[in-house]
């Protein structure tokens, strides 16, 4: 049996043992009772992502710039909780399968859905823009699923931590949020000066479904980098 097969079998056995606690737990709110402190911190990451989404929606409704700034700030707050949940888990010396799944789902909201909606809010609203932003979210989803499924196969250091990420980690999307925040400060958003570099028309008439904001290509490239298997980002 190869090392990879043994590692896969060990992971399967550990998952089966971890699932036993949920099978043995019964009654109302049994899921909540199985939450650990680190899990609650992880959920706060999801809360921040959700608040960013709703703040973006408020901005679209009433055009109050304060809501846009809130929407830009909440993903950063989510990153703080994303960093703290691991610290808390190590401090409490407790981790769980539930926590791993919660972490990925919260990351998808805060660093996938929220940034894509922010890009739409500031002006990437053509048909092709929304196609690319949808692909951005789906690539983030695929990247997180692959991480959960293959993390046991990634080489580890002496401390047992993965040496690198396969593909660009989804929290890196905060770099794009930072760019959107700068554009907002400069007034380079829809309703003001407009998105930098403007649009290009790939087919049909200007303003039609073939129109695309040039900067949307950056989101497309970011999406591709997240699902890349050959791109290896050292884990700090």
From TrEMBL:
Q: Does the keyword Transferase apply?
A: yes
Q: Which reaction does it catalyse?
A: a CDP-1,2-diacyl-sn-glycerol + L-serine = a 1,2-diacyl-sn-glycero-3-phospho-L-serine + CMP + H(+)
Q: In which pathway does it act?
A: Lipid metabolism; Phospholipid metabolism; phosphatidylethanolamine biosynthesis; phosphatidylethanolamine from CDP-diacylglycerol: step 1/2
Q: Give its E.C. classification number.
A: 2.7.8.8
Q: What is its main location?
A: endoplasmic reticulum
Q: What GO terms describe the biological role, i.e. biological process, of this protein?
A: phosphatidylserine biosynthetic process
- Residues spanning the membrane: 67-84, 105-124
Q: Which residues lie in coiled coils?
A: none
Q: Output one GO MF annotation.
A: CDP-diacylglycerol-serine O-phosphatidyltransferase activity
Protein keywords: Endoplasmic reticulum, Lipid biosynthesis, Lipid metabolism, Membrane, Phospholipid biosynthesis, Phospholipid metabolism, Transferase, Transmembrane, Transmembrane helix
Location within or outside the cell: Endoplasmic reticulum membrane
What membrane topology is annotated for this entry? Answer: Multi-pass membrane protein
Enzyme category, top tier: transferase
Task: Give a Gene Ontology cellular component term annotated to this protein.
Answer: endoplasmic reticulum membrane
Q: Which Pfam families match?
A: CDP-OH_P_transf
Q: Which family does it belong to?
A: Belongs to the CDP-alcohol phosphatidyltransferase class-I family.
Q: Which PANTHER family match?
A: CDP-DIACYLGLYCEROL--GLYCEROL-3-PHOSPHATE 3-PHOSPHATIDYLTRANSFERASE-RELATED (PTHR14269), CDP-DIACYLGLYCEROL--SERINE O-PHOSPHATIDYLTRANSFERASE (PTHR14269:SF61)
Q: What's this protein's name?
A: CDP-diacylglycerol--serine O-phosphatidyltransferase
Species name for this entry? Answer: Mycena pura
